[in-house]
Amino acid sequence: MFYNFKGIGIQAISACVPKQVVDNEFFSHIITSDEIRKFERITGILERRYASNEVTSADLAFHAAMDVLSNGIETSDIKALIFVSQTSDYKIPFTSNILQDRLNLKKELLCIDINAGCAGFVQGLSTAFALANSLNGNVLFIVAETLSKILSSRDRVTSTLFGDGAAALILGKFGYSSKKSAFNFFSDGKNFDAILIPEGGYRKPFSQESLMWRFDEYGNSKNGLHLHMDGQRVFDFTLREIPKSVQSLLDDSNNLV
Question: How far is CA 142 from CA 102, 138, 159, in A?
Answer without folding.
Answer: 14, 13, 24
